[in-house]
Amino acid sequence: MPPKSRPATLDVESVTRWRRRAGERPDEILNAALDEFLAKGFDAARMEDIAARAKLSKAGVYLYFDSKLALLQALVDREVKPIAHRATALMRAGHADPIAALRLLATFARGTVADPRLMAVPRLVISIAGRFPEIAERYRLEVVERAIGGLTALIAAGIAKGDFRAVDAGVAARMLAGPLILEALWRHILGGAPLAPDIAATAAAQIDILLNGLRPDARPEPTP
Amino acid sequence: MPPKSRPATLDVESVTRWRRRAGERPDEILNAALDEFLAKGFDAARMEDIAARAKLSKAGVYLYFDSKLALLQALVDREVKPIAHRATALMRAGHADPIAALRLLATFARGTVADPRLMAVPRLVISIAGRFPEIAERYRLEVVERAIGGLTALIAAGIAKGDFRAVDAGVAARMLAGPLILEALWRHILGGAPLAPDIAATAAAQIDILLNGLRPDARPEPTP
Amino acid sequence: MPPKSRPATLDVESVTRWRRRAGERPDEILNAALDEFLAKGFDAARMEDIAARAKLSKAGVYLYFDSKLALLQALVDREVKPIAHRATALMRAGHADPIAALRLLATFARGTVADPRLMAVPRLVISIAGRFPEIAERYRLEVVERAIGGLTALIAAGIAKGDFRAVDAGVAARMLAGPLILEALWRHILGGAPLAPDIAATAAAQIDILLNGLRPDARPEPTP
Amino acid sequence: MPPKSRPATLDVESVTRWRRRAGERPDEILNAALDEFLAKGFDAARMEDIAARAKLSKAGVYLYFDSKLALLQALVDREVKPIAHRATALMRAGHADPIAALRLLATFARGTVADPRLMAVPRLVISIAGRFPEIAERYRLEVVERAIGGLTALIAAGIAKGDFRAVDAGVAARMLAGPLILEALWRHILGGAPLAPDIAATAAAQIDILLNGLRPDARPEPTP
DNA sequence: AATGAATGAGGCTTCATTCAT
DNA sequence: TATGAATGAAGCCTCATTCAT
User: Fold this and answer.
1) Tell me, in Å, how far CA of D65 is from C1' of F3?
2) What is the CATH number of domain A1-65?
3) From the list D129, D158, D206, which residue is nearest C190 (CB)?
């Protein structure tokens, strides 16, 4: 997903002046756009700066994208598809052992939240959601709903299997996802230092509380 | 900078409505600005529309606020102070009976999240956070940190009192707050229909899970 | 011409709240306007600042002057009349002894050039001459032409009387006035330190050169 | 900041006129700006009119100059450099025969004063001097001081050489320059008809008076 | 494919001036 | 007489977008 850096080797091709394959350009431009959009916001970002960051002239950008808005849409597009797939796949894989799956997911998600690159598009979507509700909706349906839905299904499976008692699976799912969202918001949008710096420990603590509750007479199962 | 407010005496003259209402104007303008900022985003919002919404000429706004950015800052200012106080007060009130306090808080918070007016400024802050990090930071410190901190303290108090077992109080706090944030994001930013339409039931379910966990052998205490 | 300061004595009148006599206001306003016009230029000067300097509200100025331009015109008016008279009178007085008159005039003029207050309106006129040619013309006719004319007449009288040889009186007049203009321009417009700090000596030297020339075989008459 | 000028080669293509003439544009714009500034004054001049006069869109001007003020500064810059050089060179050339040099200079200067194009920047500088003292200072130091300094040096050289008697060289220099300044002010700023229409005769008269004085017993050397 | 040059549209802000009190 | 409040008109500057090369 990060733009492939040009190889530094001097092979046959590099004898003739390197000609950038057109295929790479759009991605480079999108990356530049993403950076600028995040730093300044969609409206305040200037096409000129995006172009410069992509090492292109202002007019050059228009060879690949029709407008500034098209950049935004393409940006969301580019991220939506693979993520949706991955998320669904991951979720489905865990129906056999819901508890193990939860642990896995929590750690995985915490890692994701820690990676600024992966958080970039979500941040962008959130910042422009008021101005372009359709984009926000698309993202909600394709990414967020799928993620929460998958999580809910996972817990529902656990209930069906008898691993969990009968609770509102949606509520439980949100108790797992919520803290992650909060962490993401806190770090990447509000600019705070990590609330939970020790990812593994925090994930374990969260799962422990989720499984065993806060009751003093609970007999918490230690994280393996 | 705002002109001195007219005296509040109730003499004969004040029966007829003032045509010039200096004292109320700043608030009216801020409300108008909030609406426009939310609908279009900070940059895309036009001072002219804000003025019109406040039933003022474009130049009139500048009698009360120095610039567009000043509007944004005043907007955050206006909400930060009372909220911070309220949050702290509320939290402190609950140290005697942490469990009851949790229930109270959860319901209260769900109500807050459901109110678009109360969510307006948070939405705004989130949308401009990338462009004005200092504003985001201010909001984070004055509002979010205080809220999470209070919640953490509440749970820590419960642990000390023996009502809760010894867990990471911060993690537990975030498991309470996270789902609310998620709900807020979902509804007010991503434009989704409520995930948890039955506020009371959801709050109860959330507290139940938080207290008793998901283990099938838990004996959940019914919500009173 | 400078605004009379309010007397600090506590006489009968000051028992009743001091009421500024309307008659003084216009002058105070004009003074304020002059200051602002000089500091910022006519266009960049703000009515609000002028009002503030005159200790009046913005609207208050309009009770006395119809517009910003009216201020400018009134300003020139106020200075044109007395100066024109004075200059003419002075000039006429010197026809008896042209050489003595020249000496007198030169010293007098150097004193004038040194006084920033007296130079204020000329500066103003020069700065707005391009924008309001009629004002410049008025000033030229009423002040400058009269001054140079008077000087020329004085020298012509000297020629007629046999005190001077037959030269172009206009040229000679300008050789007297020119250095003064140059000094004024240098000091008050270009902001330079005085070219001729020792006014008396300079005036004497100037007259000496004017009378006796630069020829090495001249026998300069010492300044008395 | 101005874009690189197109290469000056004279190939087939350059027969057809360039529609985009980046290289010439800055100068065209400056000329337009000068005209507008002089006609209306710096503040009252509109960028739109300047652009129109330069046959450019409003925005086009900003491709070459950052702001209105930048135009003003560039304008002064453009004139300051060559003038300073020229003035110094001219002055130095005359040390051999100071009297001849004076005659030459006087005629040359009168010619300069008669040319509205050459007077444009001085006029502009004078009109904005109050508002932008740094620009005025720059002009004073680079142009006026140099000119007067050169003239003074010239006369001092004449004194050293024995061509002139020992007078204050600065005073004498100002008696030469002053009338020119006065003429310039009169014509180009106050809008008067030439005081000295016959340039040659006037210059001669001025030099005559300067050399021989007004004494009736002087034996003026005729202008050759 | 790529760009330097150019522009139309539009936004923020300022300010002289007016008006109701 | 005096002013706080308000506004219409205008100007500077920016920027997404286009065009000719």
Assistant:
1) 43
2) 1.10.10.60
3) D129
Which CATH number does the domain D20-61 belong to among 1.10.3210.10, 3.40.50.300, 1.10.10.60, 1.20.120.450?
1.10.10.60
Q: How far is the CA of C189 from the C1' of F6 (A)?
A: 39
pLDDT band at D55 (very low <50, low <70, confident <90, very high): very high
Contact D191 C139 (CB under 8 A): no
The CATH code of domain D77-212 reads 1.10.357.10
- Write down the domain spans for chain B: 12-61, 77-212
CB atoms within 10 A of CB C99: 17
Name residue C91's amino acid: M
Q: Determine the pLDDT at residue D11.
A: 37
**What's the CA C52/C1' F2 distance, rounded, in angstroms?**
14
Full DSSP string of B13-76: GGGSPPS--TTTHHHHHHHHHHHHHHHH-TTT--HHHHHHHTTS-HHHHTTT-SSHHHHHHHHH
Residue D2 and residue D64 in contact, taking contact as beta carbons nearer than 8 Å:
yes
Answer whether D touches C (≥3 Cβ pairs < 8 Å): yes
Instruction: CATH number for C15-65: choose from 1.20.1530.20, 1.10.10.60, 3.40.710.10, 3.40.630.30.
Output: 1.10.10.60
Among C149, C87, C150, residue whose Cα is nearest residue C118:
C87
From its phi and psi, is residue D185 left (phi > 0), alpha (psi between -120 and 50) or beta?
alpha
The residue of chain D with its CA nearest to that of C122 is D190
For residue B172, pLDDT over 70 is answered with yes
Who among D136, D206, D217 is closest to C175 (CB)? Answer: D206
* pLDDT of residue D217 exceeding 60: yes
**Axis crossing angle, helix A169-184 with helix A98-114, rounded to the nearest 10:** 20
Q: Kindly report the nearest CA distance between residue D62 and chain C, in angstroms.
A: 22
As a whole number, mean pLDDT of residues A23-34 equals 93
Q: Which CATH architecture fits C75-224?
A: Orthogonal Bundle (1.10)
Identify, with chain letter, the residue nearest to nucleotide E15 (CA–C1'): C46
What is the predicted pLDDT for the residue at D93?
Answer: 76
When CB atoms are compared, the residue of B133, B171, B216 closest to A165 is B216
Domain spanning A76-224: CATH superfamily: Tetracycline Repressor, domain 2 (1.10.357.10)
- Tens of each residue's pLDDT in chain C, 224 residues: 333 333 333 344 444 444 445 678 999 999 999 999 999 999 999 999 999 999 999 999 999 999 999 999 999 999 888 876 777 777 777 788 888 888 888 888 888 999 999 999 999 999 999 999 999 999 999 999 988 998 999 999 999 999 999 999 999 999 999 999 999 999 999 999 999 888 889 999 999 999 999 998 876 655 44
CA atom of A48 to C1′ atom of E3, Å: 13
How many angstroms separate the CA of D59 from the C1' of E8? 9
Whether A and B touch (3+ CB pairs < 8 Å), yes or no = yes
Distance from CA of A182 to the nearest CA of B (A): 5
List of chains touching B (3+ CB pairs within 8 A): A
Distance separating alpha carbons of residues C131 and C44, to the nearest angstrom: 13
Nearest CA of chain C to the CA of D53: how many Å?
A: 18
pTM: 0.86
Q: What's the pLDDT at A19?
A: 45
Compute the distance between CA of residue D47 and CA of residue D64 in angstroms, rounded to an integer.
Answer: 13
Cβ contacts from A onto B, under 8 A: 219
Which residue of D123, D168, D175 is in closest CB contact with C130? D123
CATH number for B12-61: choose from 3.30.67, 1.10.357, 1.10.10, 3.40.50: 1.10.10
Q: C102 to chain D nearest CA, in Å? A: 12
State which residue has its Cα closest to the C1' atom of F18.
Answer: A59
Q: Give CA torsion, residues A73, A78, A80, A83, to 10 deg.
A: -160
Cα–Cα distance between D85 and A123 in angstroms, integer? 60
What's the length of chain B? 224
